[in-house]
Amino acid sequence: MIGLDAQGRIELPNRAASEFLGVDLQGRLGEPLADVAPEFAAMIEAVMAAPDKPVTAEVEHGPAMQKRVLLVRIGAELKAGLADGFIVTFDDVTELLSAQRKAAWADVARRIAHEIKNPLTPIQLSAERLKRRYSREITSDVEGFAQCADTIVRHVGDIGRMVDEFSTFARMPAPVMKSESLERIVREALVLQRVASRHIDFQVEIADPDLRALCDRRLIGQALTNLLQNAVDAVAMRPGAHIVKVQLFAEGHNAVLRVIDDGIGLPDTDRAKLMEPYVTHKTKGTGLGLAIVRKIMEDHGGQLDLDAAPGGQGAMVSLVLPALTAAADAPNLEALGEDRAI
User: For the domain bounded by 2-92, which CATH number is listed?
Assistant: First the structure.
């Protein structure tokens, strides 16, 4: 809560307000709140114009990758019909709104996956049968017939992969936590990418090969695979780009899996929205890849960070999760076995 004077200047803030806004409001007494928190300016202006009508709105506050959604209400203290001051109250509803959006999108994804998946198999089988059955009988435009049949099969495959993403997002399994070698997860994720994208120079930098985390190896591997696929797609969209670098290192008490590419990069604004379902900056894609990765990291008590690559060209995306210390992990090592060699 923040108390303002009749001119909208900060007069009586509480500590919670300072924590929410990330500003020492006690040190900004006497300053207009609109200057300290410009996001509130329009609301303050509206309530000053009509003091008898409280204003309520959702306001985004904070740096690009750490924006919080605040439910803000500003009301006037009236004396003789005139505003003698204003009371600003707000609650952080970021997690509530995020949970509501995820639940709604999961329901949409589940319905889409169900409705689309059913006809895919008969379409693909019919196209393949037409090609096998009639390719020898057709005498005119044989090549065109084959291309059309192959196009149907190829696009059915593309749709099938999209449906798989919908299904994954709608039914994300709970993680099964075990002590896992993060180097093993990195190398397993890179195997298929190197085979499928031989034109890309995959570089690996393992600062600590013994780094381990309490995690679900399959889910963290899926998250890393999604990031690698995004990097491959981004490289393909910029002529001359060809590098995807994977780094594994410790940072404080955390382990960091980082993917850096020299592709088209990320938008300069609203990067955090790329982690929302069905938001993408690529010409092709469902917009679910990063949403799935974010959900996996949240379930692991970690986070997903999106940044520009060093030097500005390309993207740098990091998976950050709590690392296991050698002492904490020692009882598990013998039972689980050392499995770094892939």
Answer: 3.30.450.20
